[in-house]
Amino acid sequence: MNASEASYIHSQGIRILPIQSDFGSDVGYGNGVTHANDALTKAHALGIPKGTIIIDDIESNSAVDAGFIEGWYTTISNAGYAVGYYENPYAGSSHFNSAFCAAVGKNPAIGNSILHSTEPSTGRTGRSDAPSFAPAGISCGGHTTGHAFIWQYGLANGSSVNIDIDEALSSVPLW
């Protein structure tokens, strides 16, 4: 996306959820910092204001660790943006839960991150039969951790493009 495309989207009354695409290599503090700095460079080029959420896309097959989560969190939050993670919260289907809980154990502030949960997935729905907001969260030591405020509850598979069907609480600081 470029600045003129973002301007057009905003002119239509649509808000944008900035997500840094998954590069893989979601291991190590240094990689978390590198991914975050790349996202910040793009955010500054687009004119995304501080206070807006910036999400890192951590796919379910990513070998993520606590260091990566810490590097992303520290860099994004120190730059003045809200921190988020696109993640699969189901234990056994991703590495995110254990990595996130370990990161929260080292830095409890990470537990205030906004989570973009991909579960439960209800499949393709229309507006009239969309489910009530109920994203799966993460439990660290028996306590819900992180804020599952965004939910990808479905995926519409088209012939040439996949479309995520998402819902976010109004408290999420979109751009």
UniProtKB/TrEMBL annotation:
Signal peptide: none annotated. Gene3D superfamilies: Glycosidases. InterPro entries: GH, Rv2525c-like_Glyco_Hydro-like. This is Rv2525c-like glycoside hydrolase-like domain-containing protein. Coiled coil: none annotated. Residues 2-120 form the Rv2525c-like glycoside hydrolase-like domain.
